[in-house]
Amino acid sequence: MLMMAVAARFHLFGLELSGPFAWLGSTAAVAALAVATTVELAADKIPFVDHALSLVGTLARPAAGALVAAAAFSNLDPTAAAIAGLIIGAPAALAVHSAQATTRVASTATTGGLANPALSLAEDVAAFGGSILALAAPLLVPVVLLVAGLIAWRVVAAARRARHP
């Protein structure tokens, strides 16, 4: 949400939010989202606190995904934008959140949570890059996600073969 708010505030990537979503580009929204993002980035590096954030994120992230996707379609009728947000944004955010939560549980089980800060940092870099890509070239996002999914599938399949030859 912060990336979209900053892009809207400074008219980056040609993004202009209209109607009920224009508030996302306000100074107050950018400041509040910057504080929330900073707190989440820091807290997510603390083992077991990251699990509490993940629990809250199970509801918050799909809602935020729906809001961001609806805002991206703010040039449409508000009802159509809201439907697009629910159909595109919420499931996409829930899928990413589920993958993150599953990875964190596996990391905690195998490393006692010691690898979680490094995973969190990698997730932060991926989220930043993905946000820039979504703003700059939104049509590439599905392609990148498909390629990333195929790579992840191959890595998991290779790991399973290595464990059970």
Structure description:
The chain is mostly helical and 165 residues long. The protein has six helices and no strands. The chain has helices at 2-9, 27-43, 49-72, 78-111, 116-136, 141-163. The chain starts with a helix and ends with a helix.
Beta-strand content estimate? under 5%
- Mean pLDDT, nearest integer? 91
Amino-to-carboxy terminus distance: 44 Å
Q: Count up the helices.
A: 6
Biggest sheet: strands, sense, closure? none
User: Which range best describes the helical content: under 10%, 10-25%, 25-40%, 40-55%, 55-70% or over 70%?
Assistant: over 70%
Number of strands: 0
Low-confidence stretches: none
Outline, from the CA principal axes? globular
Order of H and E elements: HHHHHH
Radius of gyration (CA) equals 17 Å
Helix and strand content put the structural class at mainly alpha
Q: What are the salient characteristics of this protein?
A:
6 helices, 165 residues, 0% strand, single chain, mainly alpha, 77% helix
Q: Topology of this protein?
A:
Blueprint: H1 2-9, H2 27-43, H3 49-72, H4 78-111, H5 116-136, H6 141-163
Concise summary:
By secondary structure, the protein is mainly alpha-helical. The chain has helices spanning 2-9, 27-43, 49-72, 78-111, 116-136, 141-163.
